[in-house]
Amino acid sequence: MGTFLAMTLKSAIKLPVLALASALMLMGCSSDQDQKELLKSLRGSLPSFKKAAPPAKPDPARVLAATTGPVNMITQKSLNNAMVLTIEIAQNGPYRTHATSTKQSLTFRQGMATATRGLGHDLMSSSVNDSLRLISARREGKAKRVMRYLDSANTTLSYTFECDMYVTGATTIRQGVVSASVTEMTENCVSDTQKFTNTYLVDRGGMILSSEQWLGPNQGYFAIQVLRR
Fold first, then answer.
1. What is the DSSP track for 190-229?
2. Which 8-state DSSP code applies to residue 50?
């Protein structure tokens, strides 16, 4: 169980990337004909992941055209670069939760992943205020973060990391309907048993628009791109 999309890949079940909840919300204020057209459009935009064949690449343009809210493209680097598109399904203060229709989800704060659900050995919560403070200011410094996981025995395991944040460049990105000048930042983190390096592309408002983030010893690295805010 343990990795993003692994359950669906191993069981050869199709994994729609567009949350059904969003379709239902849109359908609630549409005519019958509009509902049929919307469902047809959504079905056509959903990739299918099968064990026996490489995953089909999702169609960002089609999903963006069929929805109005925030959309992310997420790639799990450790799972043959399996790629999905997710939509925002919930807001809780500064936290934004993106999900697939199978209820696998990632929660973000300023574009930094802070929790997951439905992936197995989930990142249950994290304390990342120090890192976000440096990212918001786009400056170098030291940070401490805590990442908490649920293991197969439903026991919460906490890892405390000492991190160094660096400013490593500047560039311009265009992805989906997002276009921005960004600062590249690199974060090196070490605990007693784990270490990782995250990279972030941060806009002038302190929002991470593109990144590669380590989510845990079982999930590995995820590439995350904001296609619409």
1. E-SS-EEEEEEEE-TTS-EEEEEEE--TTT-EEEEEEEE-
2. B
For 69-130, the DSSP string reads S-EEEEEETTTTTEEEEEEEEEEETTEEEEE-TT--EEEEETTEEEEEESSSS-EEEEE-HH
Q: What percentage of the chain's residues is helix, strand, coil (to nearest 5)?
A: 20, 45, 35
Q: How many residues does the chain have?
A: 229
Residue with tokens 């440096």: 134
Integer Cα distance of 221 and 97 in angstroms:
18
Q: At what angle do helices 20-27 and 32-45 cross, to 10 degrees?
A: 160
- Global pTM reads 0.77
**Domains of the chain, CATH where assigned:** 6-228 (2.40.360.10)
Do β-strands 71-76 and 221-228 pair in parallel, antiparallel, or remain unpaired?
A: antiparallel
Structure tokens at 130: 């120090």
Q: Tell me, what DSSP letter sits at residue 164? A: E
- 8 A C-beta contact, residue 122 and residue 3: no
Beta bridge partners of 127: 146
130-133 long-range contacts (CB < 8 A, ≥24 apart) are: 130/163, 131/163, 131/165, 131/187, 132/206
pLDDT digits (tens, 9 = 90+) for 61-120: 999 999 999 999 999 998 788 899 999 999 999 999 999 767 899 999 999 999 999 987
Those residues whose C-beta lies under 8 Å from the C-beta of residue 31, and which sit 6 or more positions away, are none
Integer Rg of the chain from CA: 18
